[in-house]
Every structure is written in structure tokens, then in C-alpha cells.
Amino acid sequence: MAITLTQQGLRDLAEGAAVLGTGGGGDPHIGHQLVLHQLRAGRKVHIIGIDELPDDALVLPSAMMGAPTVFIEKLPSGRGNITALRALEKHLGRTAAATMPTESGGLNSMIPLLLGAQLDLPIVDADGMGRAFPELQMETWNVHGVSGSPMAIASDHGDVCLIDTGSDNIRMERRARAMTIEMGGAAYICDYPMDAATVRRTSIPGTLTLAMKIGAALRQARLRHYDPFQALTAALADTIYSHGLLLFAGKVVDVDRRTVAGFARGTVTLDDQGEQMTLTFQNEHLIAHRNGQVAAIVPDLICTLNSETGAPVTTEALRYGQRLSIFAISTPDLMRTPAALDCFGPAAFGLTEPYTPLEQLAVTLAPTGEHDPGTGLEAVTPAGLRAHPGTR
Amino acid sequence: MAITLTQQGLRDLAEGAAVLGTGGGGDPHIGHQLVLHQLRAGRKVHIIGIDELPDDALVLPSAMMGAPTVFIEKLPSGRGNITALRALEKHLGRTAAATMPTESGGLNSMIPLLLGAQLDLPIVDADGMGRAFPELQMETWNVHGVSGSPMAIASDHGDVCLIDTGSDNIRMERRARAMTIEMGGAAYICDYPMDAATVRRTSIPGTLTLAMKIGAALRQARLRHYDPFQALTAALADTIYSHGLLLFAGKVVDVDRRTVAGFARGTVTLDDQGEQMTLTFQNEHLIAHRNGQVAAIVPDLICTLNSETGAPVTTEALRYGQRLSIFAISTPDLMRTPAALDCFGPAAFGLTEPYTPLEQLAVTLAPTGEHDPGTGLEAVTPAGLRAHPGTR
Lengths: 392, 392
What we know:
2 copies of one chain form a homodimer.
Chain A: E1 3-4, H1 7-20, H2 28-40, E2 46-48, E3 58-59, E4 62-66, H3 68-71, H4 80-92, H5 111-119, E5 123-124, E6 126-127, H6 140-143, E7 151-154, E8 160-164, H7 169-182, E9 186-190, E10 194-195, H8 196-202, E11 204-205, H9 207-224, H10 228-237, E12 244-260, E13 263-272, E14 275-282, E15 284-290, E16 293-297, E17 301-306, E18 323-329, H11 338-344, H12 358-365
Parallel strand pairs in A: 2-5
Antiparallel strand pairs in A: 1-2, 3-10, 4-9, 6-11, 7-8, 7-9, 12-13, 12-18, 13-14, 14-15, 15-16, 17-18
Helix pairs in contact in A: 1-2, 1-9, 2-5, 9-10
């Protein structure tokens, strides 16, 4: 089921990936423009299924690393990604058969597409996060014991750095973060070099086509004046991300955002007639509190979407006065195992709240009449709130 | 003239290298112990002349990078140096025929000896600074257009990073400095991979044997109760470091030292009956002011030596109340060319004072009777103050 991407497919993919980016993963407009430029120049983007490569084919995932707040001030040139891939190929003494995203996000789902178009390299329809996470060890690949090393990290100045921390992917993250900061807060990486058999065994499959489906659902909803959140819920219902729930809709009354230690960190607070929802983020949204109570928590997805259009708003674009809807999406089961939660569950971010599956929190905290955020949960959950086997 | 190092030769070399380290280059006791441990275990240190390798033999210089203030709190284990060399060899696809120091210094003249003993690799009797300098681009190799990249940088944890900034050695310094800080403020490097013909063309020759000569002169002076400063001056007179001058002797009355951005920076002030000398350092001493007037300036060597024994005192070991003598040494002519001064002259350190050769400053500022620091300059300059062709 190889896909050659059209311009409309690209628009859908960029927008859908930014929904899965859960506030992070970079700005979809920048990502879209980078790849659109390639399509307009006659280059092709070939997305291939996770089963379409021979077991021993080398796959080199590609991404940008850094604070999204930096990407929007220092636009990616689309050169450092080639530098990083070529350096890692040379170091390994092997040629990549394909690239793939490390995460789903408005920019980071696009970087492998850009690289694929530039080098005529297919892109595997899968990634290692199934959403966006802020740190390099927060990959299902790491959960399954894949070494992120050796990795390449490049700037737009032609220089490159190869980092090898053996099997210690947390140390790799620390070393690469320091180098990203030194490179100006944003850099191109190729990490977790893998054969295709390992990609199949350890990745979240189908996230590029899922992003296209999400983007198409939002586009169709706008065209036909459907409720975009109902459209999203419907689009997700038959996927491994089965629950899509509108948690809150309101006006942004406070944004506290700093670029610290190479990350965009902060909180955003929304208000709806005295009801409040506060999101805490580290590049991505980590936890949502409604009037002080947990409404959704990492690794479930917490998405900030424009209340009128459903368009994703990334953490670096949050502004006072925006009308936003907080839409949460359940992560696939393979991201809720104890090993997965050790790697990217609440404690990995220093949160003291335990992980509770979104759909379970939704039942507990389902708004009563007086707390109704404007759109009843039931109305946007076609299949109702099915019991879901949480892992803890 | 290959030398197999004896324990006494090692002691002399460590002490003499610390004199050439001009306050930096690391603690000679630590360096000495690291190599002594190898000699006691029966391993050999073979120092070879700069002419003893075939033109195309690969030489990989080795050193430690970081703030000397860190080395004395976090002792080198002598593992990361092997990690760095092996990683660079693998990356280049070639095996090193020899290693060599990047600079002269109490620790950094020892690291290649340690590596040579561990891996049975000869050490070339030369280096790229002819003293110690704080930054990686401050090498005669760089002055002659040799690329420092690719370089390897390793911690004691087994992880390693390869940095390639093409021909931009200043960018290499910045990237490597960030990684050194991330690695805890001290790291092992192998940089400026060169063939032996390039080593011959671009290095300061004979600095290991010069360090042994300096160390032996100090040892003999102590044994025979000679003035150590006269002994130093005599030992230097027939070398390319022709002028050795005692500038000042006094008591340390102030030390202002911070570890900033990966360097030990600060000033030390000495007093002798109201006369004062202040040294400013960045790992190494950069400029000496006597009562506000420049008495010596980088790249000439400004050495802080114990007033009684002549033993070098590195910047991290400076303490209030020490009785120190400030001994300056003229750099070889090949380090005073306009290109060399661009690379490691006063302006490269942000100093506004112009470079003036030590021997010229000494004539201008020769102490009068009332300013006599205790030891007359004439008495320690056997050949008198010969006119020396300064380059600017």
C-alpha cells in the first residue's frame, strides 16, 4: 500500500500529525511548507507500509530536536537533515533503505518526508512514539531495548556530531540535548538506526496514514460544516487510538511559557464561565487539570485545538484570548504497558499523579449538568464510553 | 633519538611540562601518577623524534579538555582516552601509528604518555601549542590550516562523541566545549588527525624533551641548592624558548577564580612590600601587570612557580599566602608570526593590550633600585637581554 503523496494529502498529513503532536512536534505550517516546496519542484514523497521492506534493510529515522519556540524563530533550511543522514550512513558503513519519523508531530512527521523527497528515499508509515514526546529515550524502540546510538546530530552550518552512548538512551538524550542547545536550540537528528525487522517489532504502525485520516476528517468537517470534534472522534473510533474525547472548551486566560534547558516548558489555563482547565507542558502537553482534578495524563494525548475549526495549536503558538478546545485521545495499548509507562508515563516527567487511562478518568469526572463544558461528552463519543482495560 | 621513559624522566617531564603549561595544562601530580602507575605495571613509554615516522603514518594527538578546577575534583580514570582514540580510528578507518600531546602541560603532556603506555603506541616529541592554551583552535596546526575535525570526545562512562565541523576549528571548539560541560566539565579528546609529514611541518618540535630538560634543571637546582630560577634561565638559553626572566617574587594576597562556561577564569595578585603583580588567566595565565603596567603578555609564557623550589603552581592550586615567583619565558619565533598571533595572541582572548615581546617589555620595564623585586633580572639572565626581533 505504497502512497505517493499529493499536495492535498500533504496538507492533511501535516494537520493530522500536529493533532497527534499533542501540542508539540513542531509547527505544521513550517513542516508543510518545507515538503510542499519539494513537491512543487517535482520531487516525490513515497510512503511505504511497515511490511514492505526486507528484514535486513537499514532504516534511519529522522527528526528535528530542540524547543519548538526556537523552530518558529529560526526556520529550518532543510540542509542539516541530509548532513545528519549521510554522516550516520558513513559512520555505519551502510546505506539507508528508508527513513521514518521518530514521532508524530506537525514538523517532525514532515522532516522524514522532506528527506525522502530530497534523496528519493521511501518513508516507513510508522514511528516510535505514536504521538510527540520531548525526549529521545521516550520511544517504543527504547521500551523494546533498541539502542538509539550511534546517532547523528547536525546544524544548518554543515557541521555534524555523532554520539554513541551504547545502550544508554537516557545518556544519549542528555548529550544530544547539550549539543542541540550549543547548535542554537534546534538541530537535525538521525537516531535509532534499525533493520526493518526491528522497525516492525517495535514501532507504532500506520501513524502517517492515521495523521492523513485525521487531517482529512478535519478538512471534510470544515467543508461540510460538521462539528470537527465529532469528526475527530469518529475518525479515531476504529483505530488503535480508539477514544477521542472533548474535555473542555474555553478561552485562554493565562500562558506561562519559558524556553529552559532546551525545552519549551510552561502552563496554559483556559476558562469557561468560571470553570478552568490548566495544561502543563514540556514541549508537549503532559497533564490536564479541570478545576484541580486530573482529566487526562501522559501518555494519553492532550490536544489543543481551535474551537471553531479543530485546527491544532502547538504550545509555542498558545496566546491569551484564543478560543480552544481540549481534545484528549487514548494511546494505543502497546504504549500503556508497565515498561512503556516507565519510559514515558507520568513519573518519567516528574509528575506525582499516577497514570489513569483517559476513558476511566472520563467516566469518573464526566461533567454533570452544571459543569457541562458546552459540548456533552456523550455527543462526541459515538460508541459511548466503553470500559477499557487499563494496565494499572 | 627514541627515549624509553624512566621513572625519574617521567617526574622531570611532568614538572617541566607544568612549567610550560603556564598555569594551565592540568596538575602535574595527577598526570605523573597516571603514567607512573603504567610504568610500575611494567608498561613502556616510548618517545620518538618528530622525524622518526614515515610521511603517511597517522598521528592522533590526545589530551584532556575542560577546566583544571574540575580535574582535581574528578580524577581522570584513564579509560576515556582509549575510548576516544579507538572511536576516531574506527571513524577514519585507519590505525594510529603514534599519538602526541596537543599542548605542553602537567596533565596534558601526560595523557598521550598514558595512552602510549596503555596501547604500546609511540609518542611524538612535539605538540601544537608549545605551551598550554585554553581553546582547541589555539594550535600551530590550526595556524597552518590543519583541520581539527573529525575529533573524538569521550567521558569516563564509555560514551563517545565524534564532532566534524569541516575546516572551522573555532566551531569545533564551541561544539566540543558544550559536550565537555555536558560530560561533567572534563573529557578526553583526540583531535587534529594528521599524517606525520603534516606533524613535522606544523608542530613545535621537541617539547617533551624540553620539558624533561626543564624538570631536570629544577631537580638539580634543588639537590645542589642552586637558585632554581637561574637554573631555568640557563636551561632555556640554548633552546627556541631563549629568554627566561624572573619578573616578580611576592606573596599571594588575592585569588579570584571562577569556573565559568567550562573554563577556570580569574586573577591572582601578588604583593612584595607594596609592589604588586596581577595575573589574569583563562585556564592559563594571559597577561601580567606590574603596578598596572604590562610585564608579559600571551603568547609569551607566564609561569607561577614556588619561590623556594621553583615548582610550578597551576591556576587551580593558587592560594592566599603562597610565596610565588612569576617567571616569564619567550615563545619560539614560529608562535609570534602575525598568523600565529591572530590565532592565540592577546586579541584572541579579548585583551586590548597589543602583543609586545617579553624581552622588549623587560628592557622597558626593567626594575629600578626601588622597584627591585628581590632578584635582579641581570643575575638570572646569563646572556644579558639580547635584542630580539619582535614580529609586531
